[in-house]
Write a structure and sequence with these properties.
The chain is mainly β and 813 residues long. The protein contains 5 helices and 43 strands. The radius of gyration is 29 Å and the shape is globular.
């Protein structure tokens, strides 16, 4: 599909359909002259006469039901010049209320109460504040593009009391946590949710139809917020971290100081900055042995790069792990030289500016700077050392403009830029993105047009193009869709983005049927079928075809299970496994599997997953199987233990092994992987938490002695005589890792934390594939251990709080 066709489809779908009006409840609130005490006791005068939001309506698993009077929900809201206050009485039998203690933003097995505020009343940009029956908090920003982003964190107060007829929530939501313009008599979007965890039954104040449209379309309205003024939004998070590292008998210490800043430039736009960044307490990556042709990637764990990045994720051009990752430069070493190359590049600082006007115009600007990084090169004969730059001083930029409309649609323009000092490569990428839904919320079109430019200094400027199109029916029980992905051979966004492969021209279609209310013994189920057809762009040839389907269901006892089937019929052409662009052919692959997850409300719960696969090809005897089991025990409302065991076997697999004489060498191999994980969380209360995480990964790859050369017709041959014993690099691998992560966190003041962290880590990589599990473990324990101790203190300072102190001092004098 060419560019002109995509633009025509985009233009056609921007026709506005007739809107179907939604009934909206309205809650009128009054100002209070005295802020209520946040103690979970609704005894202040303002609560006695406030209008009540009640008659909550179920939307999961059934639609439209009301709760009995003894389990009703009553919510009252008031406000003053500083904050919005919420008081909620959630009636219930207190012996049935589930209240597991968890870490922040972790739902666990607890009832919860949710307040959704949308100051723009645009159905698309929500701020969610959640209080659990355990007293813990969660918060998120939400919109139709990203769903709920729980990496966003605000500082606000809440308190919970379990009483004879249920539980009571009291909340203070400061205006600094919200973005809104100065308005005399505003109307805000408001939604209130409640979940009975024992049934996973969800209720909302304004009724929701889960079969159609994004959830924000069903908000009610909040009126009465007269005369409020947006505050000065300046929050400071100074921190200090002490670090002790011990590895192979060497101990290093470090003491760092820095600060994160959040400043409201205008009523709706915020600047986030990290000055002298410290990411020493980011979690471990789950490293695995990568035999494939594409790079191994990991999710972001640095808070600055996970929080408030919804605008920057538009178009798929931004992969934050590129910033501060390994150096981009390549070294040319002599035979008698070896290099010590740093694993990471230091981030000097990073800044985000983002926000959205009441008219739905969102603007985002991101900038990060990394320092010049050098490798140390040693002459192994003379001991002479020299340095060479492997990553120069580098600047990363992102600019996003996003216009929302109709309460469910948006059009975005995104540009990313990487500028490296000196003769290193620079990169630029641009995307036009449209997410369009008709006003009846029945059909959706998503389009992305992307262009990349890479200047490698020593090579010609390369310009690449990529596109994506999705057209689908998104309402009712029966749904279907079509999608198309395209990327030419020069498309490259990997300086700041992530694109594992280009040279693709892929078509896909999906059809599904799902239920939204209980039927028979099931709360819900979904069945779907799919078909994918793939080609290369250059040369324009067939690559792969697969089809299959899946089924998932949740029972009325809240157990869930599913099945899947995937079939790749006939000859499949893998153009990437060889690493040189030639096709590798395999035939008639079939895989199937299923999973089961028992109700987590039980003290003991179990997750099980199993898959098998095989080739039906002359001369091949491939068989794969995978089995995962993960029991979890809720020892008490404070302690949760989860264990995971994963077996993965591939017998008779064939794939790339090594390069020999400038040609790819393939081998037939048996691979077995074992992964053991253990996690434990003990929460003393919502402010003190202890967490343990352990992972051991063991992977062996054993090749048959006779190896293959790849012919130009995509088939393999042993006629060239390569064997494991005769090639220069033995491809057999015995690889294992081990990590332990133990942390203690104390929130000693609102928004302020003291965190202690201990970690150790081991790696082992050799060719002793004949070693059994115990022997491999012994070898791993003989490797040097990385021990890391760190203590981090972060303090929250609100500028408005400082002002009030000085005002108090002045009035006293």
């Amino acid at each position: 599909m060419n560019t002109r066709s995509l633009f025509l489809l985009f233009a056609c779908f921007t026709i506005i359909y007739t809107s179907s009006a939604q009934d909206k409840k309205t809650l009128n609130i009054a100002r209070t002259t005295k802020a209520p005490k946040i103690d979970g006791i609704l005894n202040e005068a303002i609560w006695q006469n406030a209008e009540i939001a009640t008659d909550f309506v179920q939307f999961q698993p059934e639609i439209g039901n009301l709760r009995v009077k003894s389990q009703r929900t009553e919510v009252k809201i008031t406000y003053d010049d500083n904050a919005i206050y919420v008081g909620a009485h959630l009636y219930d039998d207190p012996t049935k209320i589930m209240k597991q203690l968890t870490s922040r933003d972790n739902f666990g097995q607890s009832d919860f109460f949710l307040v959704v505020l949308n100051p723009n009343n645009d159905s698309q940009n929500d701020t969610n504040f959640i209080v659990f029956s355990s007293g813990q908090q969660a918060d998120a920003i939400a919109n139709p593009s990203i769903g709920e982003d729980f990496s966003w964190n605000a500082v606000w107060q809440s308190s919970v009391k379990i009483v004879d007829d249920g539980w009571v929530v009291e909340m203070e939501i400061p205006y600094r946590t919200l973005r809104f313009e100065d308005q005399e008599q505003p109307t805000w979007g408001l939604q209130l949710h409640r979940q009975f965890r024992r049934e996973r039954a969800n209720y909302s104040w304004n009724p929701i139809d889960p079969t159609q449209g994004n959830i924000g379309l069903y908000h009610g309205e909040l009126k009465g917020l007269d005369g409020i003024k947006p505050p000065v939004r300046l929050n400071l998070y100074p921190f200090s971290t002490g670090i002790v590292n011990n590895f192979d008998g060497k101990t290093d210490t470090d003491l760092t100081f820095g600060m994160d800043v959040k400043y409201g430039i205008t009523d709706n736009f915020t600047l986030d900055a990290t000055l002298v960044p410290d990411f020493s307490q980011a979690g471990f990556d789950n490293v695995v042995l990568n035999l494939g042709p594409f790079e191994q990637t990991f999710s972001e764990q640095r808070q600055f790069f996970t929080e408030g990045v919804d605008l920057f994720s538009k178009g798929g051009l931004f992969f934050s792990r590129r910033i501060g990752n390994g150096p981009s430069g390549q070294l040319e070493l002599e035979e008698n030289e070896e290099a010590n190359v740093p694993n990471e590049v230091k981030v000097l600082n990073a800044v985000k500016v983002s926000g959205r006007t009441k008219e739905g115009l969102g603007i985002g600007f991101f900038n990060a700077i990394t320092e010049k990084t050098q490798a140390t090169i040693t002459n192994t004969e003379t001991g002479e050392k020299r340095s060479e730059v492997v990553e120069p001083f580098t600047n990363y930029n992102i600019l996003v403009v996003d216009q929302q409309f109709n309460g469910n649609s948006a059009v975005s323009l995104i540009n990313t830029n990487v500028t490296r000092e000196g003769s290193f490569r620079d990169a630029n990428a641009t995307a036009l993105v449209a997410n369009l839904v008709n006003k009846r919320n029945t059909y959706r079109i998503d389009t992305e047009l992307r262009m990349s430019n890479v200047n490698d200094q020593n090579l010609d400027l390369e310009t690449g193009f990529s596109s994506f199109l999705f057209v689908g029916k998104v309402h009712g029980n029966l749904r279907y869709s079509f999608d198309h992905r395209f990327a030419d051979t020069k498309y490259d966004i990997n300086d700041i983005g992530l694109n594992l492969r280009n040279n693709r021209n892929d078509f896909g279609t999906d059809i599904s049927y799902e239920t939204f209310e209980p039927t028979g013994k099931l709360n819900s189920y979904r069945i779907n079928a799919f078909l994918n057809y793939r080609r290369l762009v250059n040369p324009n040839v067939f690559s792969q075809l697969n089809f299959g389907g899946g089924y998932r269901a949740t029972t009325k006892k809240l157990d869930a299970y599913g099945l899947r089937l995937n079939i790749e019929p006939g000859e499949q052409y893998d153009f990437f496994e060889s690493r040189d662009g030639r096709a590798f052919i395999y035939e008639n692959f079939v895989s199937t599997g299923g999973w089961f997850s028992s109700n987590y409300n039980r003290i003991f719960a179990l997750d099980v997953r199993a898959n098998i696969g095989s080739l039906f090809e002359d001369g091949r005897d491939l068989f794969t199987y995978n089995f995962e089991i993960s029991p979890r025990v809720r020892v008490s409302d404070k302690l949760l233990l989860t264990y995971g065991l994963d077996f993965d076997f591939r017998n008779g697999d064939r794939g790339y092994a090594t390069f020999e004489n400038d040609e790819p060498i393939f081998g037939e191999r048996n691979r077995q992987r074992f992964t053991n994980t253990l996690s434990g969380n003990y929460n003393f209360n919502p402010f003190h938490a202890l967490a343990l995480s352990f992972r051991h990964y063991w992977d062996t790859v054993t090749y048959d002695n006779n190896l293959f050369s790849l012919l130009d017709n995509g088939r393999l041959t042993t006629d060239t005589g390569y064997t494991v014993d005769t090639i220069s690099n033995n491809p057999n691998i015995n690889f294992s890792t081990w990590n332990i992560d133990l942390s203690y966190s104390w929130q000693f003041v609102q928004g302020s934390f003291l965190t202690f962290l201990y970690r150790n880590q081991l790696f082992s990589n050799d060719i002793n594939v004949e070693d059994n599990f115990n022997e491999s473990l012994d070898l791993l324990f003989n490797q040097p251990v990385q021990h890391t101790f760190s203590l981090r203190l972060q303090y929250f300072i609100d500028f408005n709080g400082i002002k009030s102190i000085f005002k108090g001092n002045n009035s006293a004098s």
